[in-house]
Amino acid sequence: MKKINMPQYAQKVLEGAVVGCLRQKYRESAHNRIELGAQCKQEITKAIVEAEFDPQLDLPLYHACQETIRRHCSSTIIQKSGGFDTVLECLKADFYKGAISDKDCSKELARRVEETMVDIHLDPSLHEACSIDVQRLCPDVVPGHSRGCADESGNAD
After folding, report:
1. Helix axes of 11-32 and 59-68: crossing angle, nearest 10 degrees
2. Where are the Cys-rich GLG repeats (predicted)?
């Protein structure tokens, strides 16, 4: 009980650790069929989607990538009227090109990409861009647990 009163174990830190743990279990659920409770899964997916629109809601990513955002994404944000969704899309585009040199930022972006790979609906840009193709080409595939068109062709991870 003594540890709980120590500053490094403050409630805010504990909440971040719990959410981080649950997000990790959510990512792992695609590979080892861990089943989170329905309500918990709903809240975790909500947190992931909300952070797509505002990276400040994903504190580990935001803290790791603050300098990278300033360096890589300032002009993109200004060009596209400063939307938060633009920030994450900019970071992901540079991540895919291998242009992010900060290892901590790259690690957090890899985590984000892994989370959105569990379910196409967690990446609003991907979902919007591919929704018609998913309906047309993969009508029998129920999204989630990394299922998508790749499952239909036998190429799923």
Report:
1. 90
2. 35-99
